[in-house]
Amino acid sequence: MADKRFAVGPTPMILASFYRRRFKIEAFVRPLLLSLVEQAGESASFFRKEGNDGICLFRADCRHLIRDQIREGDVLSLDGHAAGQVLARFSTAKPRTRTALMAKIPFISLGKGDSETAAMAVPVFSGSEGLIGALAVSGPLTRFTPEKLVSIRPLLLGFGERLSISLASKQYAQARS
Q1: What domain count does the chain have?
Q2: Across residues 102-124, what is the average pLDDT?
Q3: Cα-trace Rg, the chain
Q4: What CATH number is attached to the domain comprising 145?
Q5: 4 within domain boundaries
Q6: How far apart are CA 113 and CA 84, in angstroms?
Q7: Is residue 105 a part of any domain in this protein?
Q8: pLDDT tens figures, 135-177
Q9: Are residues 164 and 124 in contact, defined by beta-carbon separation less than 8 angstroms?
Q10: What percent of the chain has pLDDT over 70?
Q11: What gap in Å lies between CA 160 and CA 51, rounded to an integer?
Q12: Partners of 120 in the beta sheet?
């Protein structure tokens, strides 16, 4: 800058764009997130495991003025948020263990990572890659009542299955049989 200070330029945004395109799933994920937000009434995100963290690749915010503040590019630990739990457990699971884990989805976090936030998440698979990410619905803890959790559960399971099928996965079909 003119005063000899440094500022971040556009390069990180360009690199992030290259990173997201590398997975070639945006065309499947974005429309699904928008539909999930519309039906669930809460924000929806898609996370991918990177090392020991989860990174938010895609996000669609709900219309509520009060909502959680996850953004594309945010990094979450794998031990708190529901999506992190999905990524941690399914990324190392053997096929037999994976089937048992499928019976436990969606994973739920109520006030973990952030005491004011709640989330539900399911795994997303690709036939060739196995686990490729986690699909999550999240929002303020106060709106995630037991009734809301019951109403979001089938939506999230259905959207996770649709996305996995779109990516040619057989994991959900195996878990239901």
Answers
A1: 1
A2: 92
A3: 17
A4: 3.30.450.40
A5: no
A6: 10
A7: yes
A8: 999 999 999 999 999 999 999 999 999 999 888 644 454 444 4
A9: yes
A10: 84
A11: 23
A12: 108, 137
By C-alpha distance, which of 117, 113, 124 is closest to 156?
124
- Please write down the HEC assignment for all residues of the chain: CCCCCCCCCCHHHHHHHHHHHHCCCHHHHHHHHHHHHHHHCCEEEEEEEECCEEEEEEEECCCCCCCCCCCCCCEEECCCCHHHHHHHHHHCCCHHHHHHHHCCCCEEEECCCCCCEEEEEEEEEECCCEEEEEEEEEEEHHHCCHHHHHHHHHHHHHHHHHHHHHCCCCHHHHHHC
Token output for 18: 């290259």
Closest CA to 135 of 99, 95, 165, 115: 165
Per-residue pLDDT of 19-30, as tens digits, reads 555 557 888 899
Closest CA to 119 of 156, 89, 65: 156
CB 106 within 8 A of CB 75: no
Residue, of 72 and 13, whose pLDDT is higher: 72
- Residue-range definition of the domain harbouring residue 125: 25-176
Count the neighbouring beta carbons within 10 Å of the beta carbon of residue 16: 14
Predicted TM-score (pTM) of the model is 0.82
